[in-house]
Amino acid sequence: MERIEALKGYYETHNEDARLTSRHGSVEFLTTVHYIEKYLQKGMKILEIGAGTGRYSHYFARKGYAVYAVELMECNIDVFRANTRTGENVTVRQGDALDLSFIPDGKYDVVLLLGPMYHLYTDEDKHRAMSEAIRVAKRGGVIFAAYCNSDMTVYQFCFARGGINMDQYKPLINPDTFALDSTPREIFSLYRKEDIDALMKKFAVTRLHYVGADMLTHFIGNAVDEMDNATFETYMRYHLCICEREDMVGATNHVLDIFRKE
After folding, report:
1. N or C: which end of the chain has fewer CB within 10 A?
2. Can you tell me the distance from the alpha carbon of 195 to that of 215, in angstroms, rounded to the nearest whole number?
């Protein structure tokens, strides 16, 4: 309950629907859509776990795909339903990524897990959510999992905002490796690639892409917001050129891990 109460307090006071709509915020959205569309085919069924206010669910439903969405927060579901247009083949219900027992095994071609891993704080819960996402995918189905990257928080919060010297955060910072821990109080769970690799080695999946979903965009957010359309299109082409480069992919706020169920 501590997790759910913390998330309720956060999402009832933050405008989640606007998060991906600014120009710099849209980089994560456009990148994720770019990779999803590599694997979508006509007639495929999509499940979105942790759908938030429905930015991805609505996008693909409006393109003619059947989308089933699960979201934990009632406040987000209210916005999701308010944004649903006539004719969209989309259904949303309340549910927790940790228990998708209302969905049968192997039902969906594409599974989007683009929010829940942000808000899970124990290895057991992370494994359970991932296991459920894989379970409900068809064999050969593709799963897209998003994570918050730990080291950008070290830069942006620990050093740029002084968190490194705040007593309440010192127990969460490894003094030798600068790996960060999280509790429901901090809202966001943070990962390095080795954490994601350790989680995924337990499952029968094949990684297809490991992507820096926004790279350094948040560091130059004001400049990105001020770009004209042509410059922003060029920026996106550059971003998509580098977002899988092994020497750069760690320099990102959000990670997108894409894998196929065996």
Report:
1. N
2. 19
| 1 pLDDT above the threshold of 80 | no
Strand 190-191, strand 205-212: pairing: unpaired
State mean pLDDT over 41-61.
98
Parent domain of 35: 2-146+183-261
Number of structural domains (the chain) is 1
Q: What's 214's domain CATH number? A: 3.40.50.150
SS (H, E, C) the chain: CHHHHHHHHHHCCCCHHHCCCCCCCHHHHHHHHHHHHHHCCCCCEEEEECCCCCHHHHHHHCCCCEEEEEECCHHHHHHHHHCCCCCCCEEEEECECCECCCCCCCCEEEEEECCHHHHCCCHHHHHHHHHHHHHCEEEEEEEEEEEEEHHHHHHHHHHCCCHHHCCCCHHHECCCCCCECCCHHHCCCEECHHHHHHHHCCCCEEEEEEEECCCCHHHHHHHHHCCCHHHHHHHHHHHHHHCCCCCCCCCCCEEEEEEEEC
Taking 90 as the threshold, does the pLDDT of residue 132 lie above it? yes
pLDDT of residue 26: 96
170 assigned to some structural domain:
no
* Average pLDDT, rounded, for the chain: 96
Q: What is the pLDDT of residues 190-205, one digit of tens each?
A: 999 999 999 999 999 9
User: Are 44 and 111 contacting, i.e. CB atoms less than 8 angstroms apart?
Assistant: no
**How far apart are alpha carbons 254 and 82 in whole angstroms?**
27
User: 43: alpha, beta or left, given left = phi > 0 and alpha = psi -120 to 50?
Assistant: left
